[in-house]
Amino acid sequence: MTNKKFSSLETFRGFAALMIAAIHFDVNSPIVDHNLAHGHFVHFFFTLSGFVIFYNYNDKLYNLDLFKVFVIKRFLRLYPLHLFFLIIFLFIEIFKYYIKIYYDLDANNQAFSKNDLSALIYNVFLIHTFLTEYTFNTPSWSISAEFLTYILFALILMKSSKMIYSILILLIIFFIRVNDDIYFGASHSGYKSLLDCIYGFYFGVIFCKIYFKVRKLPFYQKNKSLFSIIFVIISIISFNFLSKELQILFPLIFGLTILFSCELDNGTLIGKILTFKFFVYLGKISYSIYMSHLFIFWLLTQILRFFLGFHTYIEEDTNFVKLDLSLTEANLLVISSYTLTIVFSAILYKYIENNKFYLRSKSKKI
């Protein structure tokens, strides 16, 4: 089986990255201040990743040599961009230290307070999903969780691809997490964030297995567009109304959405939307969007604050210094942040995501 990309799912991936960026574009703008700016889009990524990875590798990981090639390919896909931003955020810590010493200016988080040597080591070795605080490039905790999940997935697949193993993993994690005092999706909850990643990933695996069984059935082919619309709507509603106790159902909803949306083409209205070239491209560069947006927003905020002299205030709940912006100014900052993030991500995708080591690993058959 050759590797395949589902264009419609790429659009979902791009939208999810933009909604995660909306959480971190922390200004009072209706462009980002809405219920779809939701952290559970990270778990959509996990579920989607399980679906696509199983689709492409379900019959290929059957010995240790293939396992090694798979893990190396996944590492080279994720790590260079992670390392790039880790270095950037390390320099930001040095910059914060410098301006405190020489100009007595305080950052919201003091230099090397959270981002200390221990956090740096965890980030370097891609195990920072086990930390209970956000460090350096905040969104990258999920990259750690996903890479470790890839290793677990490949180890299990070497033994068997039977459905029972995937169901057993889901049941074990479900009973651990449903009886926990930390709700599903707490991304700074140490090892539980890794469990939540595995949980979402294996929902994707199960729904890919279901897809293999139903994709040629007339009922599926005839009704996939309708059910795609239905589950997209259910997903949107769930972001608004699903209680914290029930948020463990998100990967189930995401899996159903992916199942009925993966094959859509431009023959239907929803297919035309999901396969629109620019939307698909956003999905293509979504990893770079996901990893770069926080830095772009931080950079623009510092420019407005220190170089353009925008007024600031101290937020009562967090004690953070924030820009005091009008609605128009906040909207312009968000639009600028999104625009620069997309442009920067296109460059990152070309020169860092598709680095020569990753491209060389892709040429190895697996």
Features:
globular, 2 strands, single chain, mainly alpha
Total helix count?
Answer: 14
Helix coverage percent: 55-70%
Radius of gyration: 21 Å
Uncertain runs with pLDDT below 50, 5 residues or more? none
Order of helices and strands: HHHHHHHHHHHHEEHH
Q: What gross morphology would you assign? A: globular
- Average the pLDDT over all residues and give the rounded result: 90
The largest sheet has its strands arranged as: 1-2
Q: Give the biggest sheet.
A: 2 strands, antiparallel
Total strands: the figure is 2
| End-to-end separation | 10 Å
Integer tally of domains = 1
What's the quaternary structure here?
single chain
Strand content: under 5%
Q: Structural class of the helix and strand makeup?
A: mainly alpha
Structure description:
By secondary structure, this protein is mainly alpha-helical. It has one domain (7-362). The chain is built from 14 helices and two strands, in the order ααααααααααααββαα. The chain has helices spanning 7-24, 41-57, 64-103, 117-124, 141-159, 163-178, 191-214, 218-241, 250-261, 269-274, 277-284, 286-307, 327-353, 356-362, and strands at residues 312-314, 321-323. The protein has a two-stranded antiparallel ribbon. A hairpin with a 6-residue loop joins β1 (312-314) and β2. α2 (41-57) crosses α7. The mean pLDDT is 90.
